[in-house]
Write a structure and sequence with these properties.
Layout lengths: L8 H12 L51 E4 L2 E4 L1 E3 L4 E9 L20 E4 L6 E7 L5 E8 L9 E4 H7 L7 E9 L8 E2 L10 H4 L5 E8 L2 H14 L4 E7 L5 E10 L2 H11 L9 E4 L1
Parallel strand pairs: 3-10, 4-8, 5-7
Antiparallel strand pairs: 1-2, 4-9, 5-8, 6-7, 6-9, 11-13, 11-14, 12-13
Amino acid sequence: MKKVIQLASILSVSILSACTTTNIKSPGSQEPLDRSIPDSAPTDSDRSFSDSLPGEPRPKVEAKSRYGNPPYYEQDGKVYHVLDSADGYIDVGIASWYGKKFHGRRTSSGEIYDMYHYTAAHKTLPLPSYARVTNLDTGESVVVKVNDRGPFVKNRLIDLSYAAAKKLGYQNKGTARVEVQVLASPKGTGIGASYERSDLIIPPIKQQASTPNLFIQVGAFSDALRADTLAARLREFFKQPIQVSSFKNSQGVNLNRVRIGPLNDGSTAESILRQLSQYDLGTTPKLVTE
């Protein structure tokens, strides 16, 4: 049975994180892997690290790695819930890459990072997972093994190895808009957070900017205090605007609706809906427009 996580517990998790969770660290290392510092690409002399570039990994279902799969962890004051299962996972966002600075160090799963292999870091996918990453601007794609945690930089979805970034053609730009689709991941245990894709259809990227007044309605309550309490909890968890407004439904009943937004685009809305699906709110969040 899927474990139900109350949204209210997020507050207590934040308070207890200092004694119950730690920053993601490379096993055997005492220092967090800080990817906010600019990385560097390999030089010709660095080629000695790798005799030849390997082929793309073949997706396969593996057991969860001994390291890197806690139910949740805290990094830079934010709590991340590791997915129990990534079946059906697909997301759109910004990819960065890491290279020479981390070459030869242990990843969060315990494997040694090799910038010439096709690997990646993700904040919540179970380790190891295999995913196809597609550059949305060029159509180029690469299969990677997700064996590390990160990137912990705002608005970043995934961190690719130098080799994977080069194959997608953005190693000189630093970042790229990508789609991440999981091809294989460890079997879920039924315990912990799970991925549930919403019915929201993401408009093409070129059209997203023209989507007006996009909101997620989390719930509507006759009890104003209940609505205000939920809104307060949501503000602790989301940086998006949280609104409480009154309206009459089709039966003429006065209700207080709690909404997140307006949101910038459909991708942001889907990400929030996915996060909300991890909690038992007693409501059914849905996408609405005005």
